[in-house]
Amino acid sequence: MKKADFEVIVVGGGHAGVEAALAAARMGCQTALLTMDPDKVALMPCNCSIGGPAKAHIAREIDALGGEMGRNIDRSYTHIRLLNTSKGPAVWALRAQADKQLYQREMSKVLLSQPNLTLMGGKVGALSSTGRRVTGVVCASGDTYKSLSVVVTTGTFLSGLIHMGETCYSAGRAGEPASLGLSDSLRSLGLELQRLKTGTVPRIDKDSLSFEELEVQPSSTDPLWFSFGNEGAPRQGLLPCWVTRTTEETRAIIERNLHLSALYAGRIDGAGPRYCPSIEDKMVKFPDKPSHIVFLEQEGWTSREIYVQGTSNSLPVGIQTAMLRSMPGMQNVKMLRPGYAVEYDFVPATQLRPSLEAKPIEGLFLAGQINGTSGYEEAAAQGLIAGINAAQHVHRGEPLVIARSEAYMGVLVDDLITKCPLEPYRMLTARAEFRLLLRQDNADLRLTEVGRKLGLVDNDSYNRFCNKRDTIEREKEWLSNNLIHPSVGVNQLLLGLGAAPLREAVRAEELLRRPEVAFIDVCSMCGESLRASPEVAREVETQIKFEGYIRRQREQVARSERAECQLIPDGLDYCTVRGLRKEGRDKLSLIRPSTVGQAGRITGVTPADVSVLSIHLKKIKMANP
Ligand SMILES: Cc1cc2nc3c(=O)[nH]c(=O)nc-3n(C[C@H](O)[C@H](O)[C@H](O)COP(=O)(O)OP(=O)(O)OC[C@H]3O[C@@H](n4cnc5c(N)ncnc54)[C@H](O)[C@@H]3O)c2cc1C
After folding, report:
1. Which residue intervals of the chain bear CATH 3.50.50.60?
2. Ligand 1 atom with least separation from CA of 383
3. Is the CB of 375 under 6 A from ligand 1?
4. What pLDDT digit, counting tens, does each position of 479-492 carry?
């Protein structure tokens, strides 16, 4: 047999593919990233933004674990803001707009300079296998490449169909061909495929806007960065966004033409993203809402294209133009690219292990939109995990499985492998039960050690991380050891903050627990300037102020870990588990969870089923000590 050409082959150079390829190469595997068009790696076919609630958390986790997304958005953002600052720190979220082309160029540079990694152009038509093991890929050109492991990250391309009004044609996304043979190849390996759909908005010419009618939304001027390694002065000359709204006329145009919308005329079989609804959906589902907000976001420093956020649709081109022109500031707008919907095959991820390896076929990993998700961050997170586990597979190491209590990435994978999505899965803060532990600010404290052990975190980043972690501990100790005495100065400061004055000495830590008091205030009451960087100060404040809540969540985690530690043998025959309800047995047999904890999260499996299963496993263990 031909010797392997590569240890890991990654198919597809989108957000999942680039992270997978970089991770595998950084972990020392000879890796190929095989993608249809190497000039289009990390393309943002939809909104060119990274972050927002829950998505920022994922982007920071990717960064902490040694992935590239955070660094790349920092190299290329044109606009950035910190969202949700009026709420608790668990839901603070960075959101940045990228220069779309710069984002791609920068990612391309990283890929091309990565040792062990070869970026190649090619369309994969099939996977090759021996028995139940993947052995490589076969390109549409007839070229074959052998490998020990394959990661498939083909996004919306599998049997992709673009819909625009009554027009429908085969494509992976606008201007790019669909991937036609690969779905059958995946089926022949024992995987079941289903259909989903997503959509994108029209792009318009910036020079055709009437700015005097638009509300400006400037970028933040604070030094904000996604990557933990980045600090320093804020970037200058960032670009603004603008805000407009739909009108009664917009509604009338859409309602009059609903029968022409591919979505509403019933031409699309796949379900679309509920959390990112099309404009047709908004009009139909909220008939009494007089107006919907629309953001106009610039696609780059040199681009004239504006992304019209909030207007995803599958209407005919002429209707799209009329709809856009019905909004303030857009009466004379020139549409540069129409919006469209794309329908594609995906692989319900209940057929994957927690490592993202396909259950029926060894060495085959799937990541990104192919697993039923939507969004760059969700794709990149899975790509990173799949790339790590493909490398672990090659090295015969333990797969990396991240717990729900450790990261949003853990929540993401666990949800995907446990529940079959009825619509494209998007991460939301509400999906995480241990939100207070999973802040965007502490992603490094949660994951950098993990990334370091895998060889993904370089010395500089690791030293910076250790320094930050040690400083946080030192500052907490300082707060716990320092007494603050009532004095005129201290009490004046407290009254100025709207807090009650001191009657007796208290530990600095106690004072910091008060909602009105910040770390910098405590420092000045002790006659010091801010003792640590703003990043450390924020983390210390959060840990002290929310200590009680954090402790309670940790206790919940400890309780849930008992179920997570109870492993279910791979080949367990659920028919032998007496007392299981039929639905529970069917679901468990189908999804084959790896732990009792995971079993309990499967839709259709009740707490009674879980307890029956748990007793059964204990009996097996007692019989085979
Ligand atoms: C029209 C549209 C609308 C979208 N709307 C939203 C939205 O509303 N909200 C949201 O969060 N996200 C949206 N997205 C999704 C977002 O773009 C994806 O979630 C994200 O890009 C998925 O990343 P990925 O790496 O899985 O796949 P992609 O970024 O799609 O990358 C797939 C890559 O695989 C390559 N490829 C495919 N088949 C083959 C093959 N056979 N051989 C070699 N290479 C192959 C492609 O060339 C491409 O480089 C939308 C995407 C599209 C196209």
Report:
1. 6-200+344-454
2. 25
3. yes
4. 999 999 999 999 99
